[in-house]
Predict the structure.
Amino acid sequence: VILHEYERVGELEQQLKHALHIDDVIITPSEGSLMLKRLGFTAAKVVQRMVTDGSVVAVSGGSTMAAMADEMPSSVLHPIVVPARGGVGEVVEYQANVIASVLAERWHGSYKMLHLPDGLSKDSLDMLVTLEPQIKEISEVIHRTDILVFGIGQALHMADVRHIPDGVRQQLVDGNAVGEALGQYCSMDGSIVYATNNIGLSLRDIVNIPHVVAVAGGFDKAGAIISVMRSCKKGILIIDDQAAEGMRQLL
Ligand code: G3H
């Protein structure tokens, strides 16, 4: 169903916003293979309006965030851009560090990278933050984030992409994990089933962040988006009309 043809978009945006108790929902047309480009374009417009001189902008990894960075127009805003959390074993273009550097270049700002693999033990991470001044510094900047932008993935797909150990994968299956964002795996009611150890931001930090933008598209992500936004409980959600239709059916 192409919702835009039926002029029901505004109504559905309101319906989803109220059902998820978040600040706003924006639905873009899917347009087949152009879906990510359209999502990225809309997200870029929304985020760019929030950035001011000296803002700290944190961004997650993934193809959706890469599309947003790609669509970001050049402007002189001078923010500090950081990855929201440590790197993941994805292709370079989709790593949060790289996306942060692209955004900083578009905005004539600066960036800081966090060179840490996923899945380090909590003890190792605590030790690094205590002993390594560089890690301590970026961790402090990340926790001053004014604007957080993140993508949402399907829990088991993300677990596979990140080569999560079998025991943890089983924990996700047993806990009915549906969606993933910022290394947190959520079930349909928004509970966090599993969280990867991480120096950066998690869904629990969102309450302290002034501006939050989540971006995701595709019918298959409908459940994942609901689970993550029920955990997030605030922010602007930017989705395509296929995801929106899937969510309408599930809510
Ligand atoms: O954590 C979620 C993923 O980064 C989303 O990745 O935008 O490539 O689907 P994606």
Observations:
- The longest helix spans residues 35-50.
- The longest strand covers residues 211-216.
